[in-house]
Amino acid sequence: MLGPVILAASRSDKMRRFISAAPGTKQVVDRFIAGETVDQVVPIIEDAADKGLEVTLDVVGEDITTPGQAAAARDAYLELIERLKALGLGAKAEMSVKLSMFGQALDGGHELALANVRPVVEAAAAIGTTVTLDAEDHTTLDSMFAIHEELRKDFPQTGCVIQAYLFRTEEDARRLAAAGSRVRIVKGAYKEPASVAYQDKAEIDKAYVRILKTLMEGKGYPMIGSHDPRLIAIAQELARKAGRKLDEYEFQMLYGIRSDEHIRLAAEGHRMRVYTAYGTDWYGYFMRRLAEKPANLLFFGRSILTKG
Questions:
Q1: Model-level pTM?
Q2: What is the arithmetic mean of pLDDT over 129-156?
């Protein structure tokens, strides 16, 4: 399978240099990355709002190695929030953050990440929006969930992400499906060992449905992160059986993938949020998008051949 190979390459400096220099890379990166600056992403937020869509914004960046870089990541989100405030877009745009960007992997990283993310969550709440903590590899999750729990004491609308391919997630979902919680469920996009995660696609899909059922039957707010038509249909049926109204859950899809489906779901009255990444440090995010779906890799390959 190519997915694990691509995920391994996402952490290779040699591959980073090769991919970045490839002639067709920019064409494909532009498909998944909305821009490099706040100024470039603002028109995309406004266009989404005009189409009845909401967004969650991710300032891409990984491999934080110093507290200064973590502080810069915090400041990038604070700058974004100031722009959203000035444009009156707070109600249409939330933020997604990876705690690794806020220093989670550094010495004293748990406390550092909490200290850096708190002002972002506070600033987001002040303009009427919120933050969702993205899930990363399984070794980071206990810290992420502890930070999530701490933030929710003052900002109960703070969301988090769970990954269906991890064995632990069904238990996590039962704990998180409580009143006031906001939980995004995704399949998972990191290379995980067989000791902690399902490796077979069919098993991952089955786990996804079991976990989604728990969330729909719970008292929280489920956010369905998937482009899979079958899982989207199942989510709609589970919502119906649970007696949920259309504003009591939402769908989330990536910028640049199945854009027509974004519009279709919004037109049917569903809340539809587009996960919109931007920034200059796009490599890790880009490689995970390639690993998730063979069609993305084929598109990339054709672009290189065409531009080469």
A1: 0.87
A2: 97
